[in-house]
Records
---
Amino acid sequence: MRRVCVLALIAPLLLSTLGAHEDNGSEDVLRIMEWNVENLFDTIDDEGFRDEEFLPQGERRWTSYRYWKKLSDISKVIVATADDGPLPAIIGLCEVENDSVLTALTRRSILRSLGYDYVMTHSNDARGVDVAMLYLPTCFRPLEQRDVRIPSADHDLPSTRDILYVKGLVRSHSQPAGVDTLHVVVVHLPSRLGGQQGNRNRALAAKTLWSLVDSITATSVQTVPAIVLMGDFNAGGKDRIFKQSSLLLTDHPQALGTYCYRGVWQWIDHILISSSVISSSPALPLSLPWLLEAPNSSGVQMPRRTFRGDTYHGGISDHLPLVLDLRLK
């Protein structure tokens, strides 16, 4: 009852912030997008982090032209998701460097007219790579945000990316106050390339992640809180780390995956939801033509990445974005 009363008090302000929607049967639909954007670095040295390779004089020759082209291309993909539905209300991004790149993306690309805002982590990852969440204030109103640090250093492991947790309010006609609470978690688990040390770090990060999910459930006034968890897990859907969670994977069973390594497609990016969230269909990788290479001699198409090794290739990312439409019960 307390939750309904509190929401009833703030509902008029929230609904005016979120804006009016026509009653067309889709007013409660939230489009979620997740994307590892492959090393979205600016061209300025970020002191204290190993970002030298992404400087104009660095080994990758990361120039202003290449940087702004990547920002423009990312923004065009986000806008293109609205071809068959609404714009993404919430977008989880992996491999972003700092506030500078997100300010440029939301304020100096074609996204500027759409009103996206963002929150992000500020972790101790050696290269300065973080995760972030873009959101439309007309659809989602943040109430709480925090970085959840992986205690890697306590286990003599390299520092890795923090987990981003954001609690906010969304419109919901299923609730008396007209709004509901949504918990969003964005994660980028450690790479699989680190051998035994990498496996230990990924297991530790997964343990921290599921502890966060458990704490959300334990402290929520909702019987089953609405949770959306997304990111690059560096693990397939059948990996043992997912056996520790009650959240539901939304991977499309017929889709090839989000990442292609040596011609083999893999699902390593995922969107998971709690049982109080309804998805109208499974999460689907967005395979726009300009996101993919031409088929190789075996007929396999791969994501058109920004770099092949240290050689500039001109693509956007080595991962495909995921899109999921959902409702809160």
---
Amino acid sequence: MKPVVLYTTKFCPYCHRALKKLDQKGVEYTNINVSKNREEFDEIMKETGWDSVPQIFIDGVFIGGCDDLYALDDQGKLDELLGVG
């Protein structure tokens, strides 16, 4: 399974949806809560150009946010990206 990293905040409903999808698939991930770490969020914003959460990386590649994660799953591409199935 490829490494998955998410940058989230505690009260973001889209973050919770993304985490739930990964949990349903049995994916292990690193969840970095940026609510209290503005410097880390500033760094990731510079890398992606996004100023919202969640920001999801699979195997070091930025795939987008929650809607992007669900779209990949709907297209049947998520499992391949994750290295599952």
---
Amino acid sequence: MQSLADITDVAHVIQLAVAPVFLLTGIGAILSVLINRLGRVVDRFRTLENLLPGASDTTRAAIKVEMKILAGRARMVHWAIGFCTSSALLVCIVIATLFVGSVTGAQMPGVIAILFIAAMLALVVGLLCFLREIALAKGSIHTVPR
């Protein structure tokens, strides 16, 4: 039978794990946005690809320019998804390490700190890739002067 101290220790670890779980929720929302953007880029690329065979030379050149921009956007979203997913995985490892440390009695604050810092760095890089993709998307908008 477990003692009250053991149950209290597990309850404390659960309290410590709540903040990273909320972080996982936020990363999940970011990943959802990124996946939707990637889907839109791929759909637009396929539409342009279908227009390419019947297009005139002038139109074909414009289509190829847009396809090149879309390929760059897709690459940035891909990197953003990779880094944000890595961040989520590292946060999961932080949570698991908290519980393993609690059960085994091992003190691993250094490991937990390094994993959490790595998770935050991966998230920052993922968000920077997302920001770059947004800049590419905005740069491809052509406005007509009034």
---
Amino acid sequence: MNHEESCGMLVKQVQDAVAKKLNNSLRESDLTQVQLGVLIVLEHTEGKQLRLKELEKIFHVSQPTVVGVVDRLEEKGFIRTVRDPSDKRVRLARLTEEGLKKCRHEYDVLTDTEALMVRGLSEAEQQELIRMLRIMRGNLA
């Protein structure tokens, strides 16, 4: 097998293609794939807020990366950060009404990209792919 067809290279190429498609589609809305992901996670969280530490775990990224994403979303008015009342050292990212509207408006971009990515795969094949990707992620965690 050549390097271009290795599992790692194919996964990277798929990730790059998804990011490019999503980021191009979201450019007009002044959002990135990761920023939309944060809005979606917050929308589906009770209280529409999370500790930044929780966002790090969900997105498997470092603290400086989450802080940068959250700061940019706050500058755009889509989230607001507040101190956790139970621990003033902890910052919470809270979805604003404007962020909720933006999230719901742009959610279709994400679902359309997901549908395009798995086009041609049966439901069973999609579930098998997800199962295998979870194993791969676990192996590297």
